[in-house]
Amino acid sequence: MHPTSHSRPPSVPVVLASVATFAIEGIESHEVVVEADVRRGLPVFTVVGLPDAAVREARERVRAALLNSELEFPLQRLTANLAPADLRKAGPSFDLALAAAVLAASGQVPREALASAALCGELSLGGGLRPVRGALAMAFGAREGGFERLIVPVENAAEAALVEGVEVLGVPDLARLVAMLRGQWRPEAPPPRPSSAEAPSEGDLSDVRGQADAKRALELAAAGGHNLLMVGPPGAGKTMLARRLPGLLPDPAFEEAVEITRVHSVAGLSDGALARRRPFRAPHHTISTSGLVGGGATPRPGEVTLAHRGVLFLDELAEFSRAALEALRQPLESRRVEVTRGQRAISFPAAAVLVGACNRCPCARPAAECSCTDVDRTRYARRLSAPLLDRIDLVCELEAAGPLELVSAEGRGETTASVRGRVIAARERQRSRLAGTGAFTNAEMPPRVTRRHAPVEGRAWARMLEGHAHGILSGRGHDRVLRLARTLADLDGRDRIDAADVEEALGFRLGAQAVAA
Amino acid sequence: MPAACDACLRKSALIGYLGARLSAVLGSLDSRLASVLALTEDDLIDAVAGGRAADARRFSAGFDAEASRRSLAEIEIDAICPHGGGYPAALLTLADVPPVVYLTGGTDRLRELTRFPVATVVGARTPSRYATEVAYDLGRGLAAAGVTVVSGLALGIDGAAHRGALAGGGRPIGVLAGGVDIPYPKRHQALHSRVRDHGVLLSELPPGIRPLRWSFPARNRIMAALARLIVVVEAAESSGTLITAEFAVQLGREVGAVPGQVTARLAAGSNRLLREGAAVIRSPQDALDELLGVGSPARFEHADALGARESSRPDAPRHDPTAAGRNAAPLEAPNERGHNEPSLDPSLRRVLDLVEGGEAVDAIGRETGLGPGRARAALGRLELMGLIGRDGFAGYARALAGPRAGPPILEDLIPSDAPP
Predict the structure, then answer these.
(1) According to the model, what pLDDT value does residue B318 have?
(2) Which of B360, B376, B414 sits opposite A399 (nearest CB)?
(3) pLDDT tens digits, B396-408
(4) Which residue does chain A place closest to B366, by CA atoms?
(5) Quick check: A213 and B395 CB within 8 A?
(6) Kind of pairing, strands A77-83 and A28-39?
(7) B365–A229 CB contact, under 8 Å
(8) Which pLDDT score, from 0 to 100, does residue B295 have?
(9) pLDDT above 70: residue B247
(10) Nearest beta carbon to residue B395 from set A373, A397, A505
């Protein structure tokens, strides 16, 4: 570029304005500057800077919204640039910034009013503002970018206001925006952070009759964040039990709730308030790989990310496509999903407890009526993908509840609240012990941490050695059993793992044959 | 070196040549099998060759026995016929004596192995875990007692019996439905070569012939004829295994069966055999009692049967059961295994019984009053002791191998404050 091209010939009056907004990539927001250049010439409105179809259509919405708000749409040569130009911009959230840039460039609002503000919002033709996805991520971006104010559609205000240090201004329509920028109107402060009232429950644990073994496994999964596989015939209550797992988990801490809200906001699932309950996601087994782990041309979070800090339930585990199950392995290991698109790597959080459910054999009938051969069963087990089973610490078996259990009172067992009390206490022990290791639960402990934080009594140690000597335990199995035994000791309020913990952990582990098959 | 005569070799080659035609004529469960195979060459060609009769006659006329012997020698396969030496006498009791038996391992080895009591173990190709363990146990126990174990190298029970026999230090005989040089089924390739190395592979079809539909029941009749006792481990109704048992009955051999669950379809055939009077086989000892009479010794004096010093005692009486094993250690009978667990505490004992009864973990926790967590712990403990094993994903089943001889004083070795 020739250096003199910067100097403006005085004969051509140019009006330039720039306004900040954000593009969402993954669950992160990237600052985008909208520059508007208005000059004399044939009336035309051009948008450049890697816009997608929805952003290009913004021209029509901006034009109509301005005119319908009794504002002026400059009949001049209008160019808008979205910078940086190498970042793909998708969706309608740029409408408001485009409109503001045009207003500023055409002198309808003071430019200095936009100097330390960022804007986002979708315009309707009538000039009203529609809520956008990812408002929370944008608010985080605004804070990091050093903006003082973030102007959002009024529906997004409460969500964006979860981020402290940025003034969030909720605006209902374009006319109010102009009034506000001119200093003639001020929006109400967004509603205070929603109080964490008792989350409505999915149902109580005591609704499930019998299934003491599975309930014990569920408690362990909740207490230590362990992945769980439930094996049993249809109708035994696998889904009912899995749905009750989020209720057994402690309420999300504020930071966790913000993470959940952020993910759900990006996916367009947020109701605009702070998430008060842990997500429970149960995708159907026909789901695609990218639906499960995330992806697409403009990467969207998958089910494992939507279940972040909650529970991902995969019913009929053997029916999922092999590719989808294999793709789950990395998120389960690293608790993140990495998606690469062109030159850019996008990362989604994916710290969910996996609960899988499957039948004992392909025919799914009770043991007495089953006619499956060992070959059938081996084939069925093989469909479950060994790398995935390798990440499962706990396995339990369910039988269809007998008639006695269905009618008698003693089949009910404990309530969610009483189990939850123990889970919270066990989690608290883990949190204080694991502080500084990067792990919050026993299931997240890397091997090195496991061996340091799982002190084992002499007799318990002998059990582990016996397991190795008899080929029941492998190197990987060793850590898994230790982690689960650690959780058992935590539930019991003990510092050291005793022999009974090891034996029980051995009893709950997935048989090596099933993994090898 | 015994070898087959020209006429027998020619007939055997003709049967191989007409193999596919025979498949077309005979169903897999055809009772005419014996009568067809017993036909003379000309009659056989007339009976089955159909449009290819002329070709078959030309093949038969052009057969070069000497060339055939040479190529057999090249691949180290022996061929024996009733007219030469070394032919197993047991096979002469068949209505349709195989004209030639092809074998690996040498005729001396075969002669030696058939001098000991011979037991055939057969069963389902897709057996239950329980039956697989029993078959393995039988193979091992019988081999350790010096019995020659015969089976068909098929998937499931056959393979388990062979593996057990090899594990017991025995030299099993594998009877194949195709040529002895063709590992069938493919999945048993490794087992095929182990049996070839340690024991004898045997077939009535010439090398290079793939197994045919009719050759499986034909193979079964050889397995039945070779043995004094045929043990059926698990067989569904109308299965190939029952054909073997039927041949055995016709040949006047002893038939035994391992009891299965009365509700299990897989064991319906073997259970019916028991109902009809087959001997109940619960352990290698039961099979030995059946072979040699009750209270038989547990082991024959035959160091060479274990493949050790073959020439050390060439003339020793090898299979006089009453004289031989008197001073040998008695074989542990697995059905008395319960007495080997004296130290089991009563609640573990109860859990073990419930596992044996097929109860799920939930029921075990309830019945014993242990509750879910401690029931799992008890299962973990029993698994460590080797008394139970995994069944499927989450279930448990009684292990047949018996208590594990783990490092016995492990706990004493560990200080009470072991380093993690």
Answers:
(1) 41
(2) B360
(3) 777 655 555 444 3
(4) A212
(5) no
(6) antiparallel
(7) no
(8) 61
(9) yes
(10) A397
Low-confidence stretches of chain A (pLDDT beneath 70)? 1-15, 192-202, 366-370, 373-374, 402-412, 511-517
Cα gap B116→B125, rounded to integer Å: 27
B275–chain A nearest CA distance, Å:
22
End-to-end CA distance of chain B: 65
- Put simply, the answer to whether A396 touches B361 (Cβ < 8 Å) is yes
CA distances from B258 to A370, B165, B279 (A): 21, 17, 8
- The pLDDT score that the predictor gives to residue B296 is 56
Closest by CA position to B365, among listed A204, A243, A413: A413
In this complex, do A381 and B393 lie within 8 Å of one another by their Cβ atoms?
A: yes
What is the phi/psi pair of residue B156, to 5°?
80, -130
Residues in chain A: 517
Cis peptide before A84 (omega within 30 of 0): yes
Peptide bond into B334 cis (omega under 30): no
Q: Within 10 A of A517 (CB to CB), how many other CB atoms are there?
A: 19
User: B283, B334 in Cβ contact below 8 A?
Assistant: yes
Nearest alpha carbon to residue A218 among A514, A511, A487: A487
Q: Which band of pLDDT confidence, cut at 50, 70 and 90, is reported for residue B31? A: low
B392–A212 CB contact, under 8 Å: no
A115-146 pLDDT, tens per residue?
A: 899 999 999 999 999 999 999 999 999 999 99
CA B298-B404-A462 angle, to 5 degrees, is 155
Which amino acid belongs to residue B372?
P
Model confidence at B409, in pLDDT bands (50, 70, 90)? very low
Going by pLDDT thresholds of 50, 70 and 90, the confidence category of residue B323 is: very low
Residue B134: how many other CB atoms lie within 10 Å: 30
Within 13 Å and on the Cβ side, how many CA atoms surround B5? 10
Which of A208, A383, A465 to mutate against chain B (most B CBs within 10 Å)? A465
Tokens 């087992």 label which residue? Answer: B191
- Of the listed ranges A229-243, A406-420, B84-98, B140-154, the least confidently predicted one is A406-420
B135 or B336: which leads in pLDDT: B135
**Beta pairing class for B118-122 and B148-151:** parallel
The predicted-structure confidence for B193-225, as pLDDT tens digits, reads as follows: 999 999 999 999 999 888 888 888 889 999 999
Question: In this structure, which amino acid lies at residue A379?
Answer: R
Running DSSP on this structure, what letter comes out for residue B324? H
> Which run of H or E residues covers position B102?
strand B101-103
Q: How far apart are the C-alpha atoms of A299 and A339, rounded to whole Å? A: 7
Token pair for A29: 């927001």
* Cβ of residue A504 closer than 8 Å to a chain B Cβ: yes
Across the interface, of A361, A456, A511, the residue whose CB is closest to B390 is A511
Among candidate residues A476, A215, A395, A210, the one with its CA nearest the CA of residue B390: A395
Give the separation between CA A23 and CA B405, rounded to whole angstroms. Answer: 66
Q: How confident is the model at residue B303 (pLDDT cuts 50, 70, 90)?
A: very low
Residue B399 has what pLDDT? 66
Q: Alpha-carbon distance B309 to B42, whole Å?
A: 48
Give the whole-angstrom CA distance, residue B331 versus residue B50. Answer: 56
Does residue A451 belong to the interface with chain B, where contact is any CB pair within 8 Å? yes
Of B200, B248, B197, nearest to B224 by C-alpha is: B248
- Do residues B201 and B195 lie in contact, with contact meaning Cβ atoms separated by under 8 Å? yes
Shortest distance between the Cα of B129 and any Cα of chain A, in A, equals 8
Residue B307 has pLDDT above 50, yes or no: no
Q: Which amino acid is at B368?
A: T
**For residues A259 and A277, what is the distance between their CA atoms, to the nearest angstrom?**
12
Q: How far apart are CA B68 and CA A427, in angstroms?
A: 78
Reported confidence tier of residue B278, pLDDT bands at 50, 70, 90:
very high
Of the pLDDT bands very low, low, confident and very high (cuts 50, 70, 90), residue B410 is very low
